[in-house]
């Protein structure tokens, strides 16, 4: 079942049986090199996570590494969920957005949009992103993008992205530091607080919004804020993610405040997992309520209660939670007739 | 699962969830009248097989005969597989290509493309095909054809087509006589050798490529070679067949060698059944490796191991193996979420 975090169910119900393009936005930030900040990948190779996630989603194979990306405690990537839905009820189309990857995904035929964007630096030292440029690239992409399907599911794979999301929203003066989730069950609070503190230290009092974003954010968030504004409500978009996608919306909100524009959000919604919705270390609902505009937000009533696989039970205990558009993928699956049992069985089949 | 015979999986994975036109190319050759050469149909009525296959695929009925086409040993036509997939996960569109049928399929609404092509004579006596004309008809059809879907699955039903395929490739000087499959588990080697020998006897030393094809090939192979070249990579095509479709590719290859042209094959692939891939009497992989261009070739990991029906178990023993695009149909089914159990059950339902 797809359920509301905020708003009404109609947006989601309208998408029942509709065709979706799954778009995966990918970027690397050197923020991952801060020890203990994220568990989204293989230690020492976390920068490969978005690359491997894309390869696995598209082809079922990990071409840039010989083994499936797991966290130190053995939590497998949420890409398994996104791929499982695709095998059972395929997205009509998968497209990749390379928003600054260290290693390009090795896939043929699947459209990979490139924008000449480089991985960003660590926010602890100033991310040094040309945020206006990235934003304008997103805006232009949204203005020209033509979707062949009924809607877009926009997911992301950005290791340490929840930390850059928190820094972003704090830099934009939202009172929100307690609201961001983490790939860990128990957020590494001290390391994260320290990282965000270091990030905010670089923000100057005369920085405009893009100058701030350039220091403390990541390419995915900045680009997608532009992308959403560029699409200008012409196609339905499900932001498939948790607090990182909420941060994208908060960037949009800040830009609208600054520029004083009107923005129709009737074709925009967010969908995340039950693990994010029920996470007591973060608060997606309150983050969304910080927006000046109204938006429907959903979560998918899916967990691994039907599984006894120890790696999957970790999700139910609060590890990993979201990523690679897992919440939006589950929504698509359930809206197209898949059951919790179907999806669970398919995910289990990947793990052997 | 769809697996590679040659190449990478990406082409197939890209087609996951995509919409397909199933195109069935049909022709008769009097070569079938050579006793013992083929078991693709009802003895004495084998010329009706492509007609009946089309009727069954489109309507579920056999209008030109009151009973389902079976081989003497009771192996049902692979059209059952192609139809089963269509019932469970419909192709967006089915079109028929009448490339010289003795009896036109009795179906309304389904587009049947006609080209004024007559059935061909026996290759043992010189097939007397105006091969340049048939090729040019295929070329023109490819140049003007507009596909409404994401790709074409191109199947065939041509009784005794594996023998004409072998004669074709031998006449074109490929060293390949051991590589062609047969509708029989045990190829009728002597009859077939004799037939091909008789066919090649008619080839003259000064025959150009079309003169050779006109004597020893069949309409389906010549037309489809033109069709593929005419499409010129503008739409993805899955050649749904075994060694007959490999022969189509070898004709294309010979024409390119003769004409010295460049040809982009990135939108072209072949997909066949596991029964062909594992057949120890033929060798599709080696046939494809004879090509000067690269092409991905796939097989579908489907068999009737979940069935106890004696007629279906014959497939697993090596009878029939392929035809009516069964391999491509299975690929389409599996890429759209059908399971082996789903398809097996549906095929069984036709047999009662």
UniProtKB/TrEMBL annotation, chains A, B:
InterPro entries: Nict_dMeBzImd_PRibTrfase, Nict_dMeBzImd_PRibTrfase_arc, Nict_dMeBzImd_PRibTrfase_sf. SUPFAM superfamilies: Nicotinate mononucleotide:5,6-dimethylbenzimidazole phosphoribosyltransferase (CobT) (SSF52733). It comes from the Bacteria. GO terms for molecular function: nicotinate-nucleotide-dimethylbenzimidazole phosphoribosyltransferase activity. NCBIfam families: PRK04447.1-5. This is Nicotinate-nucleotide--dimethylbenzimidazole phosphoribosyltransferase. It comes from Arcobacter nitrofigilis (strain ATCC 33309 / DSM 7299 / CCUG 15893 / LMG 7604 / NCTC 12251 / CI) (Campylobacter nitrofigilis).
